[in-house]
């Protein structure tokens, strides 16, 4: 673990924390162990949210853990608590930002080669601010009658995303490097095992599987665009495609971001743990959480590169945090990760 310091001893020092990173328990572990330094925790008497304070890429950050597993209601509750306990983060004109870090389901297409282990970052597109709520309105046979509007990311964060994206034109993203460093620091190498999916394509039917070409690079990629958020789980490719047709060029589905973006400007970072179809499994969840956390670390460094600690190694990981490629399934077909390690498949039509 990183060393403990006394950064929060008084209110003046507490106000040095200007970035709030929100996540559920699974992703919280991944984000926590990318910290360059962890400070002593903070507890507000009338706030049930779990907070961890620390430094990440030269920025003083607050990690806020959602109290329940998922859903925009839980996210909205945490956003409200953060605004009450750390009001300067939300104050107009103050450089305080929110990041929503976690996992989601990818929407691979001919236009977007999204694979397991990749990362999607919410960015405005057309009339949408980056996050679009798929259950905010009425889905008819022909279209979605939308109601309401979700806040776009703040301008400074959008500029940081553009900077990071331009950096990746001339060099690889740092996700793999950060995740590798996290793995090397693990105190429990025996936990980096190969999980076996409980359900395979053979059990669900794979007659509509689409084989995709291997990638040249061995790195998980970062995609930028719309993220669909809502309380209901999308369990079929047919429902997914109807939502995508109604909402626009959606890259990812998840279940928390709308709870924050309804009232607060934020940016959403999602590691892809599965494709949005009937083939559900949790084999990639911990790895996807790690790639999302790694991406948040790089994005924070783009806010103020002069403050970033170059080469700072993250502290050791907790037991049970899987950061390795989950590997092949029982059938010998491998999950789709960055570049290819065998045949890659995308399943649709169920």
Automatic annotation (TrEMBL):
SUPFAM superfamilies: Purine and uridine phosphorylases (SSF53167). Residues 341-350 have a biased composition (Polar residues). Residues 48-294 form the Nucleoside phosphorylase domain. It comes from the Eukaryota. One of its GO terms (biological process) is nucleoside metabolic process. Residues 309-350 are annotated as: Disordered. GO terms for molecular function: catalytic activity. This is Pfs, NB-ARC and Ankyrin domain protein.
